[in-house]
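ok so i was messing around last nite and threw this chain in just to see what happens. nothing serious, just curious
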Amino acid sequence: MDKYIFQYLQISFLAIIIFTSCGKKKAKTKNASNSVNGIVLENKYKKGESYIITTTWQEIISSTDPLGMQRKDTIKMENTMHFYVNDVDEKGTANVTGKYESMKMGQFNSSDSSTYGTLEGKMFRRMKNSVLKMKIDKTGAVLELTGANEIYSIGLPDSLIDDDKIMKENINNTLAIFPGKVKVGDRWTRSNEITFGYPCKYLNNYQLKEIKNGMALIELTSDLRPFNNPPYTFFPGGIQLKQTLSGNQKGTIEIDVARGKITRSAYNLIISGTAKGTVQGKEMNMQINTDLRITNLVEFGEKEK
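result:
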C-alpha cells in the first residue's frame, strides 16, 4: 500500500516544471548607480524567441509505516523542454508553447525505446514531444495553462487530478517572482498554495543580493506551512490521500536584467509530516521526510518548431 502511494507522490513531482527563460548573450555591464537608484526586474518576452530548459533534481524520501517499518526512496530525474514565444501583447503578456524533448528517470530514458517497458517508461514514454500552452505576464504569473492533463493522464488514465491546475500552481510558485523596481538589499514576499504532491502554503521571501555584469542575484528563503486542504482522490472509488506537511526552502536565482530572463536557479526543499491514505474505508498513516534538490539551467536555442 505504501509503495502504491509513493509511486503517485513521485508522479506528482514530475508535474513541477521550473519555468524560466534566458539568452546566451549577457547584458552589458551596469554601472554602480544601479545599486543606488535601483533596477526594474520584469519577465520579458520577444515574439519568435526560443530557449531550452534543462531541469535536474534529486529527491530523497524517508518514511515510516504504521508497523514501524522504514524505507528510503531516492528519485533522480533530468528533464529537457524547448519553449517558443508565439506572440506578445502590448502589456507584455506572452503566449508560450513548451515541448518535452527528453526525460530520464530511474531506468527510463525517452531516447531509448528499450527502456519503455519499465515502470517509469510505461507512465511517461509518450511525454516526448508533448506540448504545454501557457499565457504568462511580465510579473511571471501564469494566467492560463493547458496541456498538462493530456500529458500526465498517460500514467493515470482514470485520475481525478486536475494536472493543468497543479502545473499552474507550481510554475507560479517559481516564476511569479519579478518585483518591478528594486535595488540591492531590497526584500519582497510572495505567497502561494500548492494543493497536490506535497501540499503546503509557501511564504516566499526574496532579497536582491547583488548586481554584477548585468546579472541580478536573488536569494530565496521559504517557510512552508500546512493548510486545511481536502483529501484528493487518485481514482474513482480508490485511494484518497490527506497530507499534513511543513518545512523550509532555500535557493538562489540569477536574472539577466536587460533581457528580463531567469538564467539559472537552484533550490533545496526540506519537508516533513504525515500522509494518511484511505482505500475502501481502510486507513494507513505514514511519516514522511523529504529532501529535494532542484537545479535549472537555461540555454538560448534556434531550433525550429
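not much to say yet. The longest helix spans residues 163-175.
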